[in-house]
Amino acid sequence: MKTKKRVFLTGATGNMGWAGFKELLSRSDRFDITILVRPSKKNQKKLKRYTGHPSVRIVWGDLSNYADVLKCVEGADFVLHVGGMVSPMADRYPEKTMKVNIGSAQNVVNAVKAQPNRDEIGVVYIGSVAQTGHHAPPYHWGRCGDLVTASRHDYYSLSKCIAELVFAESGLKKWVSIRQSGMLYPELLTKADDPIMFHVPFSGVLEWSTVEDSGRVLANVCEDWVPEEFWRGFYNLSSGPSFRLTNYEFEKMLLEAISCPPVEKVFERNWFATQNFHGQWYTDADRLEEMLHFRENVDAKEYFKRLKKRVPWYFSLAPLAPAFAIKAFMKHLATSDPLGTLYWFKHGVEERIDAHFGSERMWKEIGDWSTFDYSRPSDEALLPDLGFDETKPSGQWTIEDLHKSALPKGGQCLATEFAPGDIFTPVRWKCACRNEFELSPNSVLRGGHWCPECLNKSVLPEEPTLLE
Length: 468
Hints:
Elements lengths: L4 E6 L4 H11 L5 E7 L3 H7 L8 E5 L5 H8 L4 E4 L7 H4 L1 H20 L8 E7 L12 E2 L12 H14 L6 E6 L2 E2 L20 E3 L1 E2 H10 L13 E3 L7 E3 H11 L5 H4 L14 E2 L3 H7 L7 H10 L13 H14 L4 H7 L2 H8 L2 H5 L34 H7 L6 E2 L13 E4 L5 E4 L1 H6 L5 H6 L6 H4 L1
Parallel strand pairs: 1-2, 1-4, 2-3, 4-5, 5-7, 6-13, 7-11, 8-10
Antiparallel strand pairs: 9-12, 14-15, 15-16
């Protein structure tokens, strides 16, 4: 009888992690699951029915505690690292976010490296579309290999960029980074009470994934049929072309799903930032589907109809609420909370105003809905030149390819020797600011990583008043 594989899953009580947990549990003939969960009352209640399950091992602990992580990694065939601090909590506690997200990545890597079979353990890191920084039309397309960067004040993004490098530069032989996009799940429709919603530019874009597809990614990656060439790479995750939406289209579909008045009736255009967010449409998202075959291939409009059937019953009363009352609530949300866009203007938070709008003058010039451009941006993908032949197999890269790859980033490769195809051994680079650093060609050319010092400087210190 074939021995079942052991899978250690972090973040199991979150949205993606829970979908992955249930998907793995449906394959309990092939997988035993270990989950590391904080012992909160909410988590204990959620997991009560799985206590004593023959295929589930619950370890009560914390990702920030190395001993807890090590306990879970021992004996695992796969480690799926989904857990960590995410928005909106990540926006309110940036220091904790950095500590948890980077520290947990280091704990996972160190625990795997402590195993006698370290090179045989499949390690999956779930990154984020937030690692791409702001992409505005006409440059709204992207792919892995584009410059990794973080928007100003976005410590969540910075933590994900650094944590991804922890895995990519770990020396492990069987790791992969899957960058999660915006994820659609039923509870998302009910989360209209956080001011970070106003950080999202209406003219921006995002290529979404469904929570079910994301859950299948986590389970499928553990199957025997996954090709060996899948590992030690970077991938974008989405549910396909129909999920390429503008942020205005998404907001419109969301409001329709919860039976609310249209966007123009409940929002003013200038409540929403015009820049400094993240999101893109992908030219390379099908690569992950070709490897893991996880998509249900449902149409985005059909999926929103499903979500509408799963919202709490009291949302059926939404049509009874007058548009002006909903609008008043939304304006209060944007004005009263330190993370609200209108709060920044009310209190003169210039760093935030400049980052998200350009200036107060530019904010005043935004205009009303009569001047909004409702057209979708171009389907033509305008992509930055990465400097080298992207179609060339990485096993054939030469030192000339390394030197060419640094040019679009305004720097240079300092390596004088390079064994063709040795893409996982760090070499020396210099950025346009003359900082020198070491990264593997794989992280630079395939992952888009660059100068760590410049990356850190791109995220300015938070104003203490925003955190009080």
